[in-house]
Design brief:
Strand content of chain A: 15-25%
Distance between the termini of chain B: 18 Å
Number of helices of chain B: 16
Helix content of chain B: 40-55%
Radius of gyration of chain A: 25 Å
Oligomer: heterodimer
Largest sheet of chain A: 13 strands, mixed
Number of helices of chain A: 21
Largest sheet of chain B: 13 strands, mixed
Number of strands of chain B: 13
Distance between the termini of chain A: 64 Å
Strand content of chain B: 15-25%
Number of strands of chain A: 19
Shape of chain B: globular
Order of helices and strands of chain B: EHEHEHHHEEEEHEHEHHEEEHEHHHHHH
Shape of chain A: globular
Structural class of chain A: alpha+beta
Largest interface: A-B, 35 and 41 residues
Chain lengths: 582, 476
């Protein structure tokens, strides 16, 4: 066998008779009839790899114990039939892995609410740093604070930063938001977009109680930014770049899209000992390098995990990088959720084996989450702490109320902007651990919140689309949300219960899998897992108890917002800039 | 209860139908009105039909009226207003300039709206009020759940062969439909029982002239019946092309399968009933599927009698019919409904129709490559499922006739080959095959968009028609 590499075509499978299926090769449009077991074997292949590697995969899946020579024969047949496709189809367009068209310069939006000291440190860490200062990356403060004193402080902090920074530093607070809102309301009159919808986008619904409105703040940033590239940053992510010791900074790796590896640590000292700070790593530079670039593959790219769907997009020249993200180093990025016990099989196991260390790991949640290489992912895991988006795409709005607005956005973004992939950089920014109090074992809150339930909903609503363009898909998605608002109360509740039940089943299966994997020990970890399992079971009795009263109508409004969003973005782009910036 | 008779361009046939119908309905007086839905394109024939109808009304004293284009237009104007009847126009008259496929969906829609608010029975003008039933099968009432249609389909080939299985029946079909419609099934079947509420639509069987256009339908014959209807190869070969067929439920039954034929059928028009799509052959299966989407827990009723269907109006299948491949428009629409059904969680039937309609309109506007990809996927799914179903039937058919097995084997091989040959030149539904791909695509998109608009507008049209009719505002 020679070393030529081949990748599997993306195929749709349809039933047929006599133990066969019809396989439609989406790359070249051909339809083949294959025995079902052969189709199953074929569909297990991934990556653009030599024949031997595909053969190895087949050998592992070979439930019929076919001899290796037969499996090798299948590979040759599939190559002949165009099901396994030569690597040259991925590389023949242009040279270079990623060639980026000219685009607008990157802007950076920091989202803050009520914590001036964090904002101050956020700005300090950037305005003095050449990676930002030399590029004069515009820094925009999106302030959702409601306390007048905090607003004054934050505005003053932004003004002071502006005096020390060669680029623009802008402040976008309540007054600026009001001006943007008034402009959109005016423009919306001719477009048939009501005031209520614009308020929903920028402020969330009026009766949200204690729920945060970070999604509304993100919407303001998206609208203000127009159609250029935008880097979102949380105000507690300071510009200090860290990476795992084995991170590959220049290797581009294709991935099916699973979460980035996360490692938990009992103390900052342990975390510091593990990870290394990289003073040279130019995060905005790397974002500018990759964001909006079309995806092409050259031999230096690790293609072992290239998915068939991504390969088809690359082959047809319709793959691009729509989002670039970096990870977190330090404080936890999740709420009072037992992520550390639940993620054991995906994390570094050593700290789970010592009870004291394990207790600290679960209590404090200190961690580093970052890709191992520059990872081009065919999934929807996209953390928004450091997240750059290609504003030229048909981006959806964020759900304006409660947390988990970012994973829900990611699902909608990936499903609507088909062919736009997430690129994860192998670095993490320092995440201030002071901002998150410890969680005591057993005090986890696992009752589904509005944001968590919304995440389940969006995953369910975006499984299939009639259209292929981003704007049309947004319309379809919006309509599905509006239809949810039309359900009777009992049908809506039944729908939510069914989604949550499915989620619990999957999580409990994962718990059982890990308990088996680690032989049910050590006991402290197993006890936590059993407690989590019990909490989930308990939640099944009344999973809707913490959902706010207006939740269903919010979904309907969100549907309307999704449909109106492209128009609102265009209107906002023609509005005068409302931020107080220089 | 209302009765509607659909007719098109054949006064003699209508006259014969009325002769049979008026005698029958005098014997079983239950009808408040009989509407003759006339879709004839020739004004002279419309007048001729009108005269026939008036003559029968005078002779029999039946409340029988003709509903042709002028009545339909007046109706639309009355219920929708002159400026708001675009969807109604399409519902009644379709758009033959865009898609020259004659079909009776538009005419049937007139029947739905003119009787909105009532239960109704519909028959075609080529039926005669002569009924038969199986001579040796039971009469219990069975719920078949989701298992499939409880009817037996037998392309017998000759009337003699068909007669050997049947005995005469004298049902009061108006009573039968009136009893089954709007009621829950009286019996429960423990097997695959799906929760049912009421029967929304029901059908009787058909004997005589074939009602189907797929020449390969003989492959669907249950092997247990093959010896009875095809004792030898000669009769089998004749039956494959002959128009003499039988479709009959052995017992009164209900099912969640949407299988449906509108030769002799009834509906419960007291609640919203979806429209038929104009220009659609086999529109009844699509209609039935939409009824089941609107009322997911409802059942389809099957009555254990077959109505005589004029065999002389049907021709035998030709060799050319057997070589046609590809998916038909109704097969595509059925697959489309299957595709969108899981994501439509609404419970109000009007909202459901609007949701389906919006999706059809959306599909009309997707990019060309996407439309092609989507249609090919649905077509492959449909063809693949049919191949799988027939393959399973062949595998299970140890007692089937050898000649049938040979034909089935050949057909399955050709069908798989045809499925694999689908291409950028052949992805449109078969009805658009006579156009260039570009022209056909445009017509197909227009058709989807019009059907989408119709579904979105239908709940309001229906409500207004029902209110106007119940208020006695409509005069013909």
């Amino acid at each position: 066998m020679n070393r030529d590499s081949f990748f599997p075509a993306e195929c749709a499978v349809f039933p047929s008779g006599g133990g066969s299926v019809l396989l439609r090769n989406r790359n070249d449009g051909r339809v083949l009839e294959l025995p079902e077991f052969q189709a199953r074997l074929f569909l297990g292949l991934a990556g653009c790899v030599p024949r031997e590697a595909h053969l190895e995969t087949l050998m592992m899946q070979n439930r019929r114990n076919l001899p290796a020579s037969s499996l090798a024969g299948l590979i040759e047949n599939w190559i002949g039939a165009g099901l396994l496709r030569p690597e040259s189809l991925l590389t023949s367009r242009e040279t270079g892995a990623l060639q980026k068209p000219a685009s607008k310069p990157l802007s950076c939006a920091v989202l803050t609410c009520g914590r001036s000291s964090a904002l101050s440190e956020w700005l300090d860490s950037r305005i003095s740093h050449p990676h930002f200062a030399e590029r004069r990356v515009p820094l925009m403060v999106f302030d959702d604070s409601t306390d007048e004193a905090v607003i004054r402080d934050n505005r003053a902090i932004a003004d002071a930063a502006h005096d020390r920074y060669p680029g623009a530093v802008g402040y976008f607070g309540a007054a600026e938001k009001q001006a943007l809102r008034d402009g959109l309301v005016e423009a919306g009159r001719t477009e048939g977009i009501g005031r209520e919808l614009i308020d929903f986008a920028l402020y969330g619904p009026p009766d949200t109680g204690n729920l945060v409105r970070i999604g509304a703040n993100r919407n303001a940033a998206l609208l203000h930014n127009g159609f250029g590239p935008l880097l979102f940053s949380d105000d507690d992510l300071f510009y200090r770049v860290f990476r795992s010791p084995d991170a590959e900074l220049e290797l581009l790796r294709c991935s099916p899209g699973e979460h980035s590896p996360v490692r938990f640590f009992p103390s900052m000292e342990a975390l510091d000992e593990y990870a290394r700070q990289d003073h040279e790593y130019d995060l905005p530079g790397e974002i500018e390098r990759y964001l909006s670039a079309p995806v092409q593959i050259d031999p230096s790219v690790d293609r072992a995990m290239l998915t068939p769907s991504m390969a088809r997009r690359i082959e047809t020249g319709t793959a691009g990088i729509g989002a670039v993200s970096a990870g977190y180093f330090g404080g936890r990025w999740f709420d009072d959720y037992p992520l550390a016990p639940l993620r054991r099989s995906l994390a570094d196991d050593s700290f789970y084996l010592d009870q004291e260390e394990y207790t600290e790991v679960t209590r404090r949640g200190l961690n580093i989450i970052a890709a191992e290489a520059v990872t081009l992912a065919d999934g929807d895991f996209l953390q928004s702490g450091t997240m750059a988006l290609d504003g030229a795409l048909a981006l959806p709005p964020f759900f304006p109320v409660d947390r988990h607005e970012d994973p829900a956005f990611a699902v909608l973004f990936r499903s609507c902007c088909a062919g736009s992939y997430v690129l994860r950089l192998p670095v993490a920014l320092y995440h201030d651990p002071q901002q998150k109090p410890p969680i005591e074992s057993g005090s986890w809150n696992m009752t589904p919140s509005a944001g968590q339930m919304h995440k389940l909903i969006v995953q369910n609503l975006t499984r299939q689309f009639l259209a292929d363009s981003g704007e049309e898909r947004l319309r379809e998605a919006g309509r599905r949300y509006r239809e949810l608002a039309l359900l009777s109360n009992s049908d809506f509740e039944e729908y939510l219960r069914s989604l949550y039940t499915l989620y619990v089943q999957r999580t409990q299966e994962f718990i059982a899998y890990q308990l088996t994997l680690f032989d049910g020990g050590p006991p402290w970890w197993a006890a936590d897992m059993q407690q989590i399992d019990a909490l989930l079971t308990e939640n099944l009795e009344d999973p809707l108890r913490e959902l706010p009263e207006g939740f269903q109508s919010w979904l309907g409004l969100y549907g309307e917002l999704i449909e109106a969003w492209p128009v609102l973005r265009k209107s906002a782009a023609t509005e005068p800039q409302h931020a107080n910036s220089s | 209860m209302y009765a509607v008779i659909t007719t098109y361009q054949r006064p003699e046939t209508l006259s014969a139908a009325l002769a049979s119908f008026s005698g029958y309905s005098k014997k079983y007086p239950r009808l408040s009105q009989v509407l003759i839905l006339d879709d004839s394109s020739s004004a002279a024939i419309v007048e001729q039909n009108r005269a026939i109808v008036e003559s029968f009304a005078r002779q029999t004293g039946l409340n029988i009226r003709s509903v042709a284009a002028p009545e339909k237009r007046r109706f639309l104007e009355h219920v929708m207003g002159p400026d708001d009847s675009k969807a109604g126009e399409f519902a009644f008259f379709g758009d033959l300039e865009s898609l020259p496929v004659p079909a009776s969906g538009g005419n049937r829609n007139a029947g739905l709206l003119f009787s909105a608010g009532e239960k109704a029975v519909g028959i075609d003008d080529d039926t005669r009020m002569v009924f038969r039933k199986f001579s040796k099968l039971g009469s219990k009432y069975t719920d078949h759940g989701a298992q499939g249609p409880p009817v037996i389909f037998l392309p017998c080939g000759t009337e003699k062969r068909m007669d050997s299985l049947l005995t005469s029946a004298q049902p009061d079909i108006f009573h039968e439909f009136d009893t089954i419609l709007g009621e829950p099934p009286p019996h429960k079947h423990s097997g695959d029982q799906v929760e049912s509420d009421t029967v929304r639509i029901a059908m009787g069987g058909i004997l005589g002239g074939r009602w189907y256009s797929n020449p390969h339908a003989y492959l669907d014959v249950d092997p247990r019946w093959q010896k009875k209807i095809w004792p030898n190869r000669t009769e089998y070969e004749n039956a494959k092309t002959s128009p003499v067929s039988l479709l009959l439920a052995p017992e009164a039954s209900v099912t969640q399968s949407p299988f449906f034929v509108t030769t002799c059928y009834g509906w419960d028009g007291r609640d919203l009933v979806p429209p038929f799509f104009p220009h659609l052959r086999s529109d009844d299966a699509v209609w039935s599927r939409m009824v089941r989407m609107c009322y997911p827990h409802s059942s389809v009723g099957h009555l254990p009698f077959a109505i005589a269907h004029d065999r002389n109006l049907r021709s035998a299948f030709s060799d050319n019919d057997f070589v046609k491949t590809g998916t038909t428009l109704s097969e595509f629409l059925l697959q489309f409904l299957e595709y969108v059904s899981p994501e439509i969680r609404l419970s109000d039937p009007g909202d459901i129709l609007s949701a389906v309609g919006t999706r059809l309109s959306d599909l009309a506007h997707v990019s060309s490559p996407r439309l092609e990809e989507f249609l090919i996927d649905l077509s492959l799914r449909f063809q693949g499922l049919r191949i799988r179903r027939l393959s399973e039937r062949l595998e299970e058919s140890t007692k089937a006739r050898r000649f049938w097995k040979d034909d089935m084997t050949k057909y399955l091989s050709e069908a798989a080959e045809a499925a694999c040959s689908i291409s950028s030149e052949s992805w449109l539904p078969r009805e658009f095959g006579s156009f260039t791909v570009r022209e056909g695509e445009k017509l197909f998109r227009d058709y989807l968009a019009r059907c989408g608009e119709l579904l979105c507008a239908w709940p309001e049209i229906w409500d207004r028609a029902r209110e106007a009719r119940l208020a006695g505002e409509l005069s013909l």
